[in-house]
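One chain shown below:
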Amino acid sequence: MKINVPNATAFLTDMVAQKAVKDGIAALLEGVVSSWIALVVTAARRLEGFVATDDARRLAAHVGPVKVAYTITVPANATTSATAQATALSGLTPAALTTSIKTKLVAAKGASYNNMTVTSKTVVATSKPATTKAPKKGTTAGAVGMFIFGPAAFLVVAVLQQVI
């Protein structure tokens, strides 16, 4: 998903703000806790089609977008399933994500996040991981079900997994 934040550069390394994003996503998904969510945050291109002058180019602290890829790993003993969460994620709108994430960001970081918005979200696509040989005794197994959100390599990817 793409999110407009008050300072995209600072957001890239702000773990408190990123935890608030996880909390906002988890709040929309019944049975999901934020500790199951892993984020990858990258800077998004904010000046597409814009020809910058020396005065207009301000990269250090800009209001602008970040791309947030996320993975939700659903434990095998959870009361929910990866399939149920993929369905729930499919139904979420950018407006619903904005409301939930903004609530958590403002609580964690203050009023500077009142104008944050989720400008786009990815489409849910599903795939299953390839199966290899069974893991050795005493190790953990791979994912049972995997759901990928994003139609192309250049778009943000969110993944749901259910661990055996």
